[in-house]
Specification:
This protein has about 160 residues and is α+β, with helices and mostly antiparallel strands. The chain has 3 helices and 10 strands.
Length: about 160
């Protein structure tokens, strides 16, 4: 009778092994989630190159649609767009949501800009013509883990590609 009584009133709960298994599964799941949520530096470089390519393509289309030329230039730590005022002078665009001054993420820099295979000097602007397509250009972005090229063709198409 005492043997039946002890089996019937056995305490309910989890064993130490069951708790350890649950903790290991939770740890693995959290580890995988953390890896997926934290972008690597190549992903940041790729995203920034694609953003620049889309902005340059949109700026070219805006220049042709409006009949007013736009321009782009690289600055230390970022880049900006320009338009011509009524006096024909280039004026930087500051208060525009799309074409305002852009700051590059930490660790990413514009290493080189060339138009028709000729490098642009510091402070020079790249014009996005209002009445014809832009001259072919290449912009190289660099990061610790690699580099990316933003390339514009004479047809107005702009693409971004990571280097291997």
């Amino acid at each position: 009778m005492s043997h039946r009584y002890s089996k019937r009133h056995r305490s309910s709960g989890f064993t130490l092994i069951e708790i350890l298994v649950v903790l290991v599964v939770m740890g693995i799941t959290l580890g995988l989630a953390a890896v997926q949520l934290m972008p690597d530096s190549r992903a940041v470089l790729r995203d920034e190159a694609q953003r620049l390519a889309l902005l340059l393509e949109n700026a070219g289309m805006e220049a042709r649609a409006s009949g007013r030329p736009l321009a782009w230039s690289a600055e230390k730590g970022g880049y900006l767009f320009w338009n011509k005022n009524d006096y024909g002078e280039w004026v930087r665009i500051d208060n525009d949501e799309l074409f305002g001054v852009r700051t590059l993420p930490d660790g990413i820099a514009i290493a080189e800009v060339s138009v028709e295979l000729q490098p642009l000097k510091a402070g020079e602007i790249m014009s996005l013509n209002a009445f014809s397509f832009t001259l072919p250009f290449d912009i190289r972005l660099t990061a610790e883990t690699g580099s990316a090229h933003v390339t514009g063709s004479s047809t107005g198409a702009v693409s971004a590609q990571l280097d291997n």
